[in-house]
Amino acid sequence: MGNGPSQADYDRSAYSYYQTASMHPSILPDVSIDESLLRYSGLGSNAVLEAYSNEMVSYVPQFIEKFGSMTPIPNAVGLGALVISMIIELCTNGAQTGSDSFSMIRRVFGEEKASAVRDTMTEYLRRHQTFINNNQRLREEIQRLEQQLSKDLTVLRNSLLHDGQMSTRGFKIWVNGASFHLQMLIHEARLNCQTDSVNRIKTTTDLYLQDLNRLLEKYRTHQDIFRPKVRQRPGNSRTSTSILYIVTDKSERRHGEFSRDLLLGPKVNEAFMRLFVKDIRAALESHFINIRNNVDSLINQHGSFTLQNTA
Question: What is the pTM of this model?
Fold first, then answer.
C-alpha cells in the first residue's frame, strides 16, 4: 500500500478550499437566477412592485411621463410586475445616466456579442411595455415570442451539451432564459384565463429540470474554476508543503499550508467541483420546483398598479 493521500484527504482539502471560497462571492462563478427574476416570480410580486415604486417616489414626474396616464395598469404581477419595475428603473437610472437598457439583461448577458436568447428576451420586454394596456396584442406577442425563446433555448442547450460551447456565461444565460420562458407561459395563461395551461407549464418545467441536470454534469467537468483564484508559494521544503493564498478582488489572503499532494491537482479539483455543483443544483432546482408546485396560484395571481402622485 502506498503512503499517498486517500480520497478522504482530497475531499477534506477540497472542502476547506470551498468553505473559504464561499466566503468571497467574487471567487466562485455566478450562475444564479437574476435577482429581478427571483423577486417577481413569486406570489407576492405585486407587493414587491408597490414597495419598489414607493422607494422611487421622488421620481414620480418621470414615471407619469413614461406611463402616459394615471390609469391603473392591469396584471401587474409576475412578468407584468417585472416589466413595470423595469420602466421605473429606466425612468430613474435612465434619467441620470442616459441609459435605455435593462439592468437585468446586462447582468445576465454581460458582454456577450451574439445571443438569440438575449435578443428575444429584450424584444419581449419592449413589446410588453408597448402593449401593457392592450391585453389582446400582448397575448399575441407572448405567444409569438415564447415560441421563439423556446427554440432559442433549445439551440443554446444543444451547443452547451454537444458542440463544446459550455461556459459559465452560456450556462447562466440558459438558466435565466428558461426561468424567463416559464414566466412568459404563466403570464400568457393568466391573460387567457386558461387553467388548462397548468399541465403544459408543469411539463415544460420538468423538461427544464431534466436539461438542468444534464447541463450541470457537463458544467462540472468543463473547466477548473478555482485555480485562477489562488496562488501557491513555497512552504517547508523538508516536508514538501506549499502555502496557499486565496485571491479576492481586493486582497490576497493566506489560506493555509498544505502537503503538495493536496493542493489543486485533478483529484482535489474534482472534489471541489462536486461541492460547488451540489450547492448550485440545490438552489436552481428549488427555483424551478417552486414554480411547478405553485403554477395554479401563480396563474390566478392578479393585481393592478397605479402610480400614486403625491406631489
Answer: 0.85
Q: Are 56 and 88 in contact (CB under 8 A)?
A: yes
User: What is the spatial distance between Cα 296 and Cα 104, in angstroms, rounded to a whole number?
Assistant: 26
The one-character DSSP state at 305 is: B
Owner of C-alpha cell 471541489: 272
* Nearest-angstrom CA–CA distance, 240 and 236: 6
Q: Please check whether residue 108 is in contact with residue 180, taking contact to mean a CB–CB distance below 8 angstroms.
A: no
Strand, helix or coil at 44? Answer: coil
Write the CB contacts of 98 (distance below 8 Å, at least 6 apart in sequence).
none
27 neighbors 21 (Cβ within 8 angstroms): yes
**Cβ-based burial of 246 (10 A; exposed 0-12, middle 13-18, buried ≥19):** buried
Q: Which residues pair with 234 in a beta bridge?
A: 242
Task: Give per-residue pLDDT as tens, 291-310.
Answer: 999 999 999 999 998 866 54
Q: Let me know: does 185 contact 201? Beta carbons within 8 Å.
A: yes
Cα distance between residue 10 and residue 154, in whole Å: 37
Quick: pLDDT tens for 128-143: 999 998 999 999 999 9
Q: Read off the pLDDT of residues 202-258 as tens digits, 9 standing for 90 and up.
A: 999 999 999 999 999 999 887 655 554 555 555 555 544 555 555 555 555 555 545
DSSP-derived pairing of the beta strands 230-234 and 252-259: unpaired
Query: Which residues of the chain are under the pLDDT cut of 70?
Result: 1-3, 24-25, 57-71, 93-101, 113, 194-195, 223-265, 307-311
- List for the chain the helix, strand, coil content (%; round to 5): 65, 5, 30
**Sequence-ordered list of residues with C-beta below 8 angstroms from that of 198, at least 6 positions apart, any chain:** 189, 295, 296, 299
Please say whether the beta carbons of 255 and 47 come within 8 A.
no
DSSP 163-206: SS---HHHHHHHHHHHHHHHHHHHHHHHHHT-TTHHHHHHHHHH
